[in-house]
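Question (not urgent): is this output format expected?
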Amino acid sequence: MKICFVRPPSIINRVAYIGSLTPPIGVAYLAASARAAGLDVVVIDAIGEAPLQSTPIDEHLVLRGLAFEEIVRRIPRDADIIAISGMFSSEWTRIRPLVHMIAEHRPDAFFIGGGEHFSAAAELCLEQCPGLDAIALGEGEETLVDLARALQHSTDLSNVSGLVIRKPDAFHRTAPRPRLRKLDEIPEPAWDLVPLENYLSNHLGYGVDRGRSMPMLASRGCPYQCTFCSNPQMWGTRWIARNPVKVADEIERYVRTYSVSNVDFYDLTAIVKRQWIIDFCRELIRRELNITWQLPSGTRSEAIDREVAQLMYASGCRNMNYAPESGSEKTLTDIKKKVKLPRLTESLRDAVSEKVNVKINIILGLPDDRHVDVWMTLRFLVAMSWHGANDVSVGAFAPYPGSELYDRLVASGRITHSDEYFSKLAYVDISETVSYCPQISSRWLRFYVWLGFATFYGSNYLFRPWRLVRTLRNILTNKHESRGEMALSQLLGRLRPAPTR
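Got this back:
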């Protein structure tokens, strides 16, 4: 039985201030497990096949990667299962027509969707996309293998755990599939099935550009229950870490095989246990791999003190993100963000003192925010700048399907699942910002987002004037040290006329 994995092209707003093109680590993991189970596997990575190709969609959006027609032509005629990856809800309106085109080309194949968006809104996806036969929920390694075996033997798919399947008169959820516990037994990503070199040689990735960068996962899940996050539905609240020695083994193989110089960890919450990160850093130091590594997805501050930060830097860590989300204690309570701002501030000072570049993530316009909460957050940003934070991401709240706040907004009628709603989730375009907060209008929220950036970077350069000179130098030489520098370079690049097909 043959399974074809399709990673769709990326949709990027030309005036968005960030837009990463990253190797498909989720698809690579799934492909590896399917191949290990004896399935014939093909991967069509639309971004990796043509990362520099742009196709205009309209005056605001561009498609990065293969055009839909090119993807359809690459689908093997003997593929029994076609698995579509859908990670971002903002791209759902473009995934649907792609599925429709492939289904017209291969009406006899079984179509299944998987990834963050599909898991969070499974029934909605089946309702809005008739070409889909099923959705895989959460981790898909075992689910896809069991599905393939069931199809091969013509057995009832209701017996396959972890699915939402299309029935003639309804959508049916099968039994929940338990989380994978033994992460070190999962086959490593099948990077040989992906055009990986196109990412490495073009320095494409999620973190700061520090050379040939590989994505990795050292853990899965997150033990917290933030109301704006879809993690509890996608992964559950159990944090499971790999053996730090095994993680170092994988890094060493990548250095030898692909001449990797940097590793980006895509973990939801990479550092939860202090001893784990200490053991991992010491293992890297012992091996003398001469690489850098980053935590671009964000991590917790509780386990990071001066000793840990010193080990992190010595082992190659150069960039990491903290995500307090707000400087208002009321807002933090509202969104169940279990963070103590004084402890985070202390951890940040320790990290900065050890030369680690720290970025702060902030969300404005949460449904219960008031103007005073925003001003408290702006004051907090000045404090973070004073204590040495190098970088910031200020985003307007966007309701992710699968999150507690999303369900609340659906129940209140604020979200109607129109195409316009999904398009607005391209929240990195500040000019398109929509407020879901009754107390703060969309116009005010756009102003606050701009003010957040201006407040942080203005104070940052005021407190440390030499950073402005360094930032300008890094942008001109294309040697970035922070996501902010990369974002500005990418934005300037996208605003220039781009080659079209």
